[in-house]
Amino acid sequence: MGCLLKQGGGLYERLRIGAVLLAAGEGSRLGSVPKCLLRLQGVPLINRHLIALSGGGIDEVVVVTGYHHSEIEPAVETFPVTVVRNPNPEAGQQSSVRLGLQALGSKFDVVLVVLADQPLLGSAELTELISAYKKRPPETSIVYPEVCGQRGNPVVFSGEIIQELLATDQKIGCRRFIDDHPDLVHKHVTDNDRFILDIDTPEDLTAFEKRTGWKLTMPLCTES
Fold it and tell me: Could you give the CA distance from residue 142 to residue 83 in angstroms, rounded to a whole number?
């Protein structure tokens, strides 16, 4: 995916950045609704994410679908992304992460693993997180945002760590790997709560509207 806004000169070397956008979930706690197709101001969240990734300087994106693939894939077909379908999404997010990383390949210095149900995640947040990665302690190779003690998303991995993970047959779970390797992790402490705002339940929809004044509407494919 050719980025729209390339980072120019500066103190840090230009990184080649890839991203895996996870959109394979069932949305069971929301009544089996494809959460990435919830609409904010008429635009599906997954489209907003792809625009943000482009604006944030991401060079290539792999979208992983699974449940609801017949509704999600047409929504992204106009974007220059690679779409990979998880044939067994019931195996959990770990299987989708591996499929996405395999499709992305080994040509990236940095890889972001991004959730498709964070309504307010924009290019500014991605730029903030990538900047934090560039400034991280040299002994670390994983960065994630932390807001008021709560772990957020996306997660940024070095390309070397990704290749080490793919070379094994172990399950690739971002949270589990982070917990097992605290010495490799740098927490980007921030007060930007867009990193921790996601949608899982009807209560989350209500809380989002109360917090922002904006209403998330159901996907067209689920409306009667």
Answer: 25
- Residues paired with residue 20 on neighbouring β-strands, in sequence order: 62, 113
Paired residues of 150 in beta bridges: 147
Taking phi over 0 as left and psi of -120 to 50 as alpha, with beta for the rest, 148 belongs to left
Residue type, 8: G
6-55 pLDDT per residue, tens: 444 455 678 999 999 999 999 999 999 999 999 999 999 999 999 999 99
The residue with tokens 């990193």 is: 195
Task: For residue 168, count other CB atoms closer than 10 A to its CB.
Answer: 8
Distance from C-alpha of 120 to C-alpha of 98, rounded to nearest angstrom: 26
- What backbone torsions phi and psi does residue 178 show, to the nearest 5 degrees? -60, -45
Where does 79-192 show beta strands of DSSP type E?
82-85, 110-115, 142-147, 150-151, 155-158, 185-189
Amino acid at 150: Q
**Using an 8 Å Cβ cutoff, are 47 and 75 in contact?**
yes
- Residues 185-218 have pLDDT tens digits of 999 999 999 999 999 999 999 999 999 999 999 9
